[in-house]
Design brief:
The structure is a single chain. Helix content is 33%, strand content 18%. It has a seven-stranded parallel sheet with strand order 3-2-1-4-5-6-7, with helices on both faces. A seven-stranded mixed sheet has the order 10-11-9-8-12-13-14. It is built from eight helices and 14 strands. The chain has two domains: 184 residues, Rossmann fold, CATH 3.40.50; 131 residues, 3-Layer(aba) Sandwich (Rossmann fold). The radius of gyration is 19 Å and the shape is globular. The termini are far apart.
Amino acid sequence: MISGKTIFISPIDWGLGHASRCVPIIRDLSRSNTVIIGVTKKNDFFFREYFPDLEQKQVSSYNISYSKKLPLWIKIFLQWPSINTTIKKERKELNKIIVEKGIDIVISDNRFGLHSKKIKSVFVTHQLNLKTPVFKGFSNWLNRKYIHRFDEVWVPDYEEKVKRLSGELSDSSKINIPVKYIGPKTALEIADAITDKKEEFDYLFLLSGPEPQRTILENIIFGFATKTKKKLAIVRGTSEPGPRNIGNAEVFDFVTGNVLKDLIVNSETVICRSGYSTLMDVHLLNKNKLVLIPTPGQTEQEYLAELWHKKFKARKLEQKKFPEEI
């Protein structure tokens, strides 16, 4: 139990999933500690929605992007010089914040540079055992190298292997610092009790992740919405304004808390990316009718979609085959 400390917490801004799973952590810690949130222009609006009274400090963005054609691992490789620069930059930013705000503990969700020998440094991740198509050994060696610079790891998953939502991704057998499994984490944990199930929508589409793949799938879904007679809800997952209604679809730009929870509960089938944070959301609400569309070229999402197909009977669907096989 942490109490009476000043804590700086910051997630990577690769989509909003990392921010979402930090919400219950921040909520719990802020009850008996002073919590300051490290944000970027990509997620500051999200944290203002949940924690309008908590102080925010701007940190560097990783600016990770997908490609329309290249697999993610190649895109990451090409972006590595920029990512490495950000890692070095955020360390300098953290050192300034430590002095300025008297930070006792730093909690980093997948930001490799947010650690310091001066204070306790915690790394939050479910990716302890990377699933890469090539150079798997080197990728995991590099991943562990950065993780081992922290004092301990918090894994948002169950400790019991049979219950794990992330499968082999959270295997900690080669991690040499303390690992704590803190259970699945989602912003929906702080929402109120679930309303009565009404099944207002046939399909709920939850869009997420970096561009351009978010927009590519969005455009495919919009095309489907103009042709189907099914009743749809589409959550675009962005603060950028978009259309309100398309065909039989009710469109939302960005929703949180009770609104998101009610949409999930009151939809017969949820169609979404197989990003880990989204999977934690639907798991929390015991949503069984799932169609998972992995982001093309992202091996982690492809692995999770296959895992959830086998373990939880979710349907796995390639983006290029939607909506023909829906």
